[in-house]
């Protein structure tokens, strides 16, 4: 998508900082969820699949699931915000949201996204470039 | 805005719109589904108790008494056993300390065997089944009728077992407990007699959180689906707007360069965009609006060229010469 319309570097960096925090929080929340599921269905699993013999782990699971759901939603919203600021293509939005679904992947996804953001800021025009150029021309 | 509409009407964006509309419709269906789920218990309750007929036709032995059939009227034919009757004390009905009388009805099945159906025959005041020693005595409860009987009553789901059954006294009407005392096979729900015999009061409707009305969790899911559906349309609009703004910026840039750099820069700009000349009839890949905006830039380059002694630089302004000698103005 070659375009001369500049990115707002300040807005992009702010957005990415938020997304980075969300990535890490979502990554941890998902690992916690997976651990709870393992305790509920494997360690204290019943005879039939997806049954549990532990009321404690069942209730812990029932409390954490909606909390994790909320955290993932916040992650998705912040990922979408970054995607909008970067004006990437559609598939990349799906990719950002996918990063939060696989355990541990969001940590790597965050690093990958960071590189993509840095590379774009280097190679695509930014509002700040334009301001610098104007300052140079005037000064 | 009209220009943005023209971006939106391009085949790519029309296709994308079709895709997004399909996604939104799917979300709409899912929202409706959750909405119905949220109201199902309520609409089922509003429909009132239905006559479902013989219990053997309604629910299998051990089959679940679902929300859909709970509270509906069924009939059961069979025999009571005088030995199989318990009392369930500790209930408050109509402000009285009530005790529920529950007995096992042997329902003959087609294959010749019997299945047990717990029947809440009705309730009595606690005093009526309290012996002289102040203890509850199940034997004081009205005895079961003998011979073949037809019982008509509300089908209710089993209560959750919390305690056990001791000396004919239970805490709950719970089939998991009763099956240990009376044996199996046993229906998983119980019948609440609506027309009890002499000396027994009819059972009030059982209440459970499960059948109380609106399911707010499903309402929440329904709202989420609406949100997701709207998001797809927003995404499409966002994509159109982004491309539209990109093109506006490209054109603004091109115009600025053509104004600042004069004829040479202008022709260089157009050639870099894939058009070989300043002709209004552009190549196929550029849209109508591209032509509309490139119009003034071509015009300005032409006027600038003619005012600043166009004869010295003939390659830029006239279409024929720029096609004939393109190399001369592409070396910048």
Q: Helical content of chain A, roughly?
A: over 70%
Rg result of chain A: 21 Å
SS element count, helices of chain A: 5
Shape of chain A: rod-shaped
Measured by DSSP, the beta-strand proportion of chain B falls in 15-25%
Distance between the termini of chain A: 33 Å
Contiguous helical run count of chain B = 8
Low-confidence stretches of chain A: none
What is the largest interface, and how many residues per chain?
A: A-B, 9 and 11 residues
Shape descriptor of chain B: rod-shaped
Specify the biggest β-sheet of chain A: none
Structural class of chain A: mainly alpha
Q: How many structural units, i.e. domains of chain A?
A: 1
Secondary structure: helix percent of chain B: 40-55%
Through-space gap between termini of chain B: 36 Å
Write the layout of secondary structure elements.
The complex is a heterodimer of chains A (139) and B (332).
Chain A: H1 9-43, H2 55-86, H3 90-99, H4 105-123, H5 127-138
Chain B: H1 2-8, H2 11-46, E1 51-54, H3 55-58, E2 73-93, E3 96-108, E4 114-125, E5 148-157, E6 165-166, E7 169-170, H4 175-182, E8 189-193, H5 216-272, H6 288-307, H7 314-317, H8 319-324
Parallel strand pairs in B: 1-2, 4-8
Antiparallel strand pairs in B: 2-3, 2-5, 3-4, 5-8, 6-7
Helix pairs in contact in B: 1-5, 2-5, 5-6
Describe it for me?
- The complex is a heterodimer of chains A (139) and B (332).
- Chain A is mainly α and 139 residues long.
- Chain A has one domain.
- Chain A has helices at 9-43, 55-86, 90-99, 105-123, 127-138.
- In chain A, helix 1 runs antiparallel to helix 2 and helix 2 (55-86) packs antiparallel against helix 3.
- Chain A is rod-shaped and about 75 Å long.
- In chain A, 20% of the residues are buried.
- Helix content of chain B is 43%, strand content 21%.
- Chain B has helices spanning 2-8, 11-46, 55-58, 175-182, 216-272, 288-307, 314-317, 319-324, and strands at 51-54, 73-93, 96-108, 114-125, 148-157, 165-166, 169-170, 189-193.
- Chain B is rod-shaped.
- The model of chain B is unreliable at 265-332 (pLDDT under 50).
- Classes of the chains: A mainly alpha (139), B alpha+beta (332).
């Amino acid at each position: 998508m070659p375009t001369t319309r500049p990115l707002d570097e300040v807005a992009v960096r702010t957005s990415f900082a938020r997304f980075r925090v969300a990535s890490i929080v979502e990554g941890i929340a998902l690992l916690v969820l997976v651990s709870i599921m393992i305790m509920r269905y494997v360690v204290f699993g019943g005879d039939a699949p997806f049954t549990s013999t532990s009321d404690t782990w069942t209730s812990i699971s029932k409390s954490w699931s909606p909390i994790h759901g909320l955290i993932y939603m916040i992650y998705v919203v912040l990922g979408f915000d970054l995607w909008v600021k970067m004006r990437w293509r559609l598939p990349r939005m799906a990719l950002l949201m996918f990063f939060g679904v696989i355990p541990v992947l969001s940590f790597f996804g965050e690093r990958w996204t960071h590189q993509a953001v840095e590379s774009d800021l280097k190679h695509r025009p930014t509002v700040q470039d334009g301001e610098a150029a104007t300052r140079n021309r005037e000064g | 805005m009209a220009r943005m509409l023209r971006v939106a009407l391009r085949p790519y964006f029309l296709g994308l719109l079709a895709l997004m509309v399909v996604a939104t419709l799917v979300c709409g269906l899912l929202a409706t589904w959750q909405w119905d789920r949220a109201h199902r218990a309520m609409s089922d309750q509003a429909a009132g108790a239905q006559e479902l007929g013989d219990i053997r036709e309604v629910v299998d032995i051990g089959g679940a008494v679902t929300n859909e059939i709970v509270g509906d009227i069924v009939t059961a034919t069979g025999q009571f056993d005088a030995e199989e009757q318990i009392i369930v004390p500790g209930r408050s009905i109509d402000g009285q300390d009530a005790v529920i009388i529950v007995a096992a009805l042997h329902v003959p099945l087609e294959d010749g065997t019997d299945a047990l159906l717990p029947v809440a025959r009705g309730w009595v005041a606690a005093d009526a089944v309290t012996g002289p020693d102040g203890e509850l005595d199940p034997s004081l409860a009205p005895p079961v009728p003998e011979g073949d009987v037809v019982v008509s009553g509300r089908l209710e789901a089993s209560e959750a077992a919390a305690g056990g059954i001791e000396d004919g006294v239970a805490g709950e009407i719970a089939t998991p407990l009763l099956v240990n005392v009376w044996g199996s096979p046993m229906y998983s729900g119980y019948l609440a007699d609506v027309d009890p015999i002499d000396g027994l009061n009819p059972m009030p409707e059982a209440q459970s959180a499960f059948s109380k009305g609106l399911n707010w969790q499903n309402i929440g899911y329904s709202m989420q689906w609406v949100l997701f559906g709207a998001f797809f349309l927003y995404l499409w609009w966002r994509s159109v707007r982004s491309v539209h703004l990109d093109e506006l910026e490209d054109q603004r840039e091109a115009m600025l360069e053509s104004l600042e750099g004069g004829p040479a820069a202008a022709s260089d700009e157009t050639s870099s965009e894939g058009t070989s000349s300043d002709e209004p009839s552009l190549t196929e890949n550029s849209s109508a609006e591209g032509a509309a905006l490139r119009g003034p830039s071509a015009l300005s380059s032409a006027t600038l060229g003619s005012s600043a002694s166009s004869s010295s630089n003939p390659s830029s302004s006239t279409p024929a010469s720029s096609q004939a000698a393109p190399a001369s103005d592409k070396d910048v």
